[in-house]
UniProtKB/TrEMBL annotation:
InterPro entries for this protein: CHP02996_rpt-companion-dom
Protein's name in the database: TIGR02996 domain-containing protein
Amino acid sequence: MSSAMLHTNDDFLNAIRAEPHERTLRLLYADWLDEHEDPRGELIRTEEEMRQVPVFADRFWELKPRRNELRTTAGTEWCALMKYGTECEPVFRHGIPDGWRERWRLIREFTERWYRVPMPDIGGRQAEIAEAEARLGRKLPPSVREWVAFAHDANMRPNHPIYLHVFRELYEMENVPDHPALSLLRQYEDGYAWAVHHNTLDDPDPPVHGYGFEFENGMATTCSPDTERNPLATTVTEFTLGTALTYMKGHVSGDWVSTTSADPASVLNELAATFPPPTRFGHYNIYEAENIMVLASPEIRRSGTWFEMRIFKPLTREQMPASLWRYSSNGRASHQLTERSILPPAGPNDPIPF
């Protein structure tokens, strides 16, 4: 639609509804709102600027508090039509940064978008960090301090009176029994802890090691390092991001399917045609588009390549890689996508919902 034909608020909303990914149209709407002294123009400009910068950039986190404030005053129906706060935009489009600060920002934004847990910027939870350092009697490195803050912000079961649940496991800042290491996270049912060594606490972002526990009469009797896999991650941020990706099943909104293909070429070719180039992280290739993520890992299964597709909200059949849909529908996947994942075709004259 020509900008000359856009004269009213409904004109702009109908045009945006017809072309939701046309960014210039949104900025024209922002100009129109500014002319009518409507503060939603500022929200559009803020949203569009945040889309252009990495989620780990200073500018992104400078804008985020104001964007959140503007969303609360703009109205949920208007924000839904504009797709502000209702879609899961790609997180990794600018890659994986090297610095621990930037990585923690990436982890926080990923957690907010996929787990729907509101996340403030790094540098918070100073009281909780001070308590941990006083109790442990040692100064924690910057990335471990951010782990403490993140664990308190990311508690997946906020109504639990005792424990913090970070993703699927329990937050635990304690010394590992009989070993010079400090545990970060504990899996009690299998007797496993993820920890950093005391002698690496001068490293801003130290490696993470695993420890297994033996039990007798319900009590841990011995603890041994996981010699087969240690170190599990080269940094705390690598460990946290890998855990966030691994434990999404059952903890995020939406649907998912995972499968292994002994002949992955067709799936990989389709992913390359459907998505922007993937982001490499550890053994994962991460493919992203709006409301959908596919993880591909050639190393995780010796018999072939492992794929997992996560869907944030219902999509059209055309938005899904057809080969992964076939794996789900013919029973070769570990989880079946349900019909709730598929949107019916939209009618050309569907009205604006308000």
